[in-house]
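User: Please predict the structure of the protein below. I'd like the answer in structure-token form so I can feed it into my own downstream comparison script.

Assistant: Understood. Taking the following sequence of 392 residues as input:
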Amino acid sequence: MIRANRLSLIPPYLFGEISKLKAQAIAEGRDLIDLGIGDPDQPTPTPIIDKLSEIVRDPSTHPYDESPAGSPEFLEDVAVWFKKRFGVDLDPKTELLQLIGSKEGLAHIVWATIDPGDVALVPDPAYTVVKVNTLLAGGTPVVFQLPAENGFLPELEKIDSEAVKKAKIIYLNYPNNPTGAVANLDFFKKAVDWARETNTLIIHDCAYSEVSFDGYKAPSILEIDGAKDVAVEMHSLSKSFNMTGWRIGFAAGNTDAIRALNTMKSNVDSKAFAAIARTAGWALNNADNSPSLALIKKRRDILVDGLNSLGWKLEKPKASFYVWAPVPAGYTSVSLSKLFLEEAGVLVIPGLGYGEYGGNFIRMSLTVNGDKDGERIAEAVARIKKHVHIKW
């Protein structure tokens, strides 16, 4: 058998049953409103495309990128942006590493830090990449809950003490996918102190730092004094500038973690196309994606206000692309998602796909193909009201 045994450790595909129902609905010619995918539906801003068109004509960008940690121009631009955005100084040579998107960085840093038998602490509900790669690397993922009553922030002191003794890494993600929750500097200070006391590396996924509303600005964990001793942070241009397909991001922080991740990556990939990296660095300090963010905010307001008119009691998330809504009594996240799809032609994601503690929630994305001004979101609410009769 060609297939490696380790692949059997990967849980069933996150959205398997829902994906089948989606394909069936499309095959039947139904008008499906897809609130599932977290991929920006607006194009990359034109100035970024124009800048790539300029830079790609430079022949020096065409060969392999043989730089130690990524395009030097990109890393210098990242350092400038990070100082301006978070007030944190970073050494481009030792505290930054270019990534092929933050997902790739999250996966490879697990392989760079976890040996068979090691423990990784992973939240529930959560984006699944760290948990899955811990399993593939032979480690043991130990989950800890993100309780709704605590704003979906972990209570670090309540994590199983025996697991903490064995843990090498802990995964955090704010602004959060799937819950849309945010963390403040007080929480990050507690997390840094906890990591120092427990000798644990924090892997902070900060991919949604620039997708925020109502004047809110997401902090970086690296703003905390001493955070570089215990934390590495992943960033991405995918969500910030509608550049998901460009596959570009960076890791920042702890030098040992950066070095280990770089060793892993240098044996796996050959970095992104240098023209993309240099364009991304320019974008961080020069581009503007505020029209897209304004549209996302408008969709958020339409969806949350609409759902609240149907009986939900949701607060508007301050950041991310997602509305995380509890399911009414008598439903599960899977049964309600199927009902929305089959009766209303509205695709949402069952929270169970993000872990056991997501089983009583559904995730709705604010990135909707074909929507121009919030009209598809409004139509989704109208369909739910008409076809799904929920009793609270």
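That's the full token string. The longest strand covers residues 167-173.
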